[in-house]
Amino acid sequence: MLSTFVYAQKTKTLSESDRxxxxxxxxxxxxxxxxxxxxxxxxxFKVCLTLQPDNAAVNYMLSKVYEEKQLFEDAELYAKxxxxxxxxxxxxxxxxxxIYIKQKKYENAxxxxxxxxKQEKDMNLEVEAAYMFLLAHEYKKAIKTxxxxxxxxxxxxxxxxxxxxxxxxxxxxxxxIKEVEKLINAYxxxxxxxxxxxxxxxxxxxxxxAVELYLQVIKLDSQNGFAxxxxxxxxxxxxxxxxxxxxxxxxxxxxxxxxxxxxxxMVYFISSKSIDNYSNRCYELAHIFIEANPFESTSYIVLGDxxxxxxxxxxxxxxxxxxxxxxxxxxxxxxxxxxxxxxLKNNINLQKDCENALEYFPNEAVxxxxxxxxxxxxxDFEKAFRSANKGIEIAVDQKEILIQLYATLGDACHYxxxxxxCDSAFEEALKLDPKNSYAxxxxxxxxxxxxxxxxxxxxxxxLSMDIEPENSSYMDTYGWILYQKKxxxxxxxxIEKSLAITPNSAEVIEHLGxxxxxxxxxxxxxxxxxRAKELGSSGEFLDKKINDGKLxx
Length: 553
Known about the structure:
By secondary structure, the chain is mainly alpha-helical. The protein has helices at about 1-5, 15-35, 40-50, 55-70, 70-85, 90-100, 105-120, 125-135, 140-155, 155-170, 175-185, 190-205, 205-220, 225-235, 240-255, 260-270, 280-290, 295-310, 315-325, 330-345, 345-360, 365-375, 380-395, 400-415, 420-430, 435-450, 455-465, 470-485, 490-500, 505-520, 520-535, 540-550. Among the domains are: about 435-495, no CATH class; about 505-553, no CATH class.
C-alpha cells in the first residue's frame, strides 16, 4: 500500500536497486513514526529524499513528523513542497492548512481553504475559509466568503451565526440584527430564532424589545425554558420578584430544557435570598425540578443540598441516596451522602456508604478515612486497620488525609494489640504534623495504658494541652499519665479539671475513683465508681471494684 501511495505520482524514475532502498527506508520510517521514534523516522524519510527529492508523499510524511515534534517551520517547509509536487492532492493541502493554523497564519490558511473549496466543490471548506478570515480579523473577506456561500446554499443558521459574530466583533449591531432577522423571515415559526434575536437585544441593553420577543417565543413554544429564565432575570432586575419566581417555576417545569440550564437557574434563585417565603420557595422549585427530571441525579442533589444547608441530614441523606442510585459515577453525590452519615453519627450507615462508594471510587482516599473512623466507632478494629492501610497506600501526596489515616491506624493497632505498629503509625502521623493534637493525645494515652515510656507520654500529652488547653479529654490523658507515674495528688488535679468541663464523662469519673482509692479516699472512690457505672462506663474491672470495694488494675 505504501508503495502504491508513493509511486502514484510523477516523480523521478528509480533504478531497481534504488527502488529497493527507497521502499525499505520509507516503510521503516513509517514504523519508527508509529512507535514515536521521531528522530529516526526523520532520518529515514530524508534517505528517501536523497533518492527521490520530488516525492510529494515523503515530503508530506516529513511534515507530519515535524508537526508531532512541534517544529512547525520545518513542518511548513515540507508541507509546501508536498503541495508543489502534487497540487491535486487535497490531503497535502489540508496538512499545510493545519500547519498554518498552528502558527496562527490564519489568512494563509483561509486562502488555502478557499482554493480547496474551489477544487473539491465543497462549501464546508468555504465555511472553514470564512472562519480563518475571522480569526485573522479580515472581516470584509470573511463576510464576502459567507455571502458567496449563502448565495449558493440559501439562508443557513450556521452562516448567519458566523456573520452575526463578525458584525458584533466590529460593533455593527444593526447589521448583526439584520442577519438574525433574515432567519426569522425565512422560518417565522421557529422559536429558537426569535430567541436568538431576543438574546442579542438583551446583551445590547435593549431589554424591552427582548422581552417582547421572549413572550413571542413562549407563545410558539410553551416548553422553552431558556425564554422563561431570561424573563426571570429581567423581572428580577426590575424588582418584580413575583414574576421572577413564576417565570423560574415555568422554566423548571419544562420537559425539553436541559438539566445544566435548570441547575444554573436553580443556583441563581437560591442566591437571591431577598425573595419572600424564600426557604419554602427553594424547596418548591427543587421538587418541581425532580418532577420534571425524575431520572436525573442532579435534581436530587439540589434538594439534598437544600436539606444539608439547614442541617436536616436525615432528609439530605435520602436525596443523595437517590442521586447515587441513578448515577453511581457521580462522586459529588457520594461525598455528600457520606458527609451526612458522618454528621448523623450513624456509623453503620457511614460504613455501608463508604463500602458502596469505594466500589466506584477505589482510589478516593478520603472515603478510607471515613470508613476507618466508622469501623473504629463500631469497634470493628480489623476493618479499621485494613481500611487505614489501604488508604495510606493511595493517599501518597495528600498530607492531611495521611495524617488522619495514620492516627486512625494507630488507634486500631492499639485495640488489636499490635503495639509496635501502633507506635509506628503515630510516629508517622507526627512526622507529617508534629503539632497534631489528636495524634499526640492518643499516642500518649495508649502508652500510659501500657504503662510504658511514661516520660515520653507525659511530654506528648503536655504538648497536646498546650495546643488545646480547654480540651477535657486531653486533661484526662495527662492526669492518667501522672496516675501511672504514681503522682496521685497532681493526677487528681487534672482529672478534676477535666470533669469541670465535662462533668458526666463516665470514663473520667472512673479514673477519679481510682485516684481517690490510691489517696486513701475509699468512700469517695466507691461513690465515683458507682456513678461511672450509672453513666455507662465499660471499664474492664469496674464491676469488681464496686462489688469488692477495692481497686483492680
